[in-house]
Write a structure and sequence with these properties.
It is a single chain. The protein has helices at 2-33, 42-64, 68-98, 107-136, 141-166. By secondary structure, it is mainly α. It has one domain: Cytochrome c oxidase, subunit III, four-helix bundle (Four Helix Bundle (Hemerythrin (Met), subunit A), Up-down Bundle). 83% of the residues lie in helices and 0% in strands. α1 packs antiparallel against α4. It is built from five helices and no strands.
């Protein structure tokens, strides 16, 4: 059963990888085609990045926990930092919307909000998964490891988004 769970998660993450890669390519293409991309709130992206990295660290501690209660505490910390990430992203969206950057305003806006919005939706799903992990599969190490795979994936995707979108590194 354990191998089937890991295989299923690996296949899911492979499809997600292709999906995010295509969204990143679209973003890079449309950013180059746009005339004058807007200033993005870098300070909020830095907060988001720090939250993601801290959350991934907490998840690694949850996996290393010697007891179920230790794991529960670290999973809670991972979920909490996931919520901080979500709040920083919502704030960044509010700043951009206030400045007139919308999903329908330009190809840049469309590709930016699609890419970051899909990541945001995945993080919401991940936070809900972490919040319900103990109820869905109490003490189940396989479930914890599968959830950790998803969480680490989201962290890695955000790091790529941060570098490509916010720092403007070309891929």
């Amino acid at each position: 059963m354990r191998q089937a769970v890991y295989l299923g998660m690996t296949l899911f993450l492979a499809t997600e990888s292709v999906f995010f890669f295509m969204l990143l390519l679209a973003f890079v293409y449309f950013r180059q085609a746009s005339h004058g991309a807007p200033d993005l709130p870098l300070h909020l992206a830095v907060i988001s990045t720090a939250s993601v990295l801290t959350s991934c660290f907490a998840m690694s501690r949850a996996r290393a926990g010697k007891t179920a209660s230790q794991a529960r505490v670290w999973i809670g910390a991972a979920a909490l930092f996931g919520l901080i990430f979500l709040l920083a992203q919502w704030r960044a969206y509010a700043v951009l919307l206030r400045d007139g950057v919308t999903i329908s305003e330009s190809l840049f806006g469309t590709s930016f909000f699609t890419l970051t919005g899909m990541h945001l939706m995945n993080v919401i799903a991940g936070v809900l998964l972490l919040a319900g992990l103990d109820r869905l599969a109490p003490g189940n190490l396989t479930a914890l490891r599968a959830a950790a795979m998803f969480w680490y994936f989201l962290g890695a995707v955000w790091c790529v988004i941060f570098v490509v979108v916010y720092l403007g590194i070309r891929v």
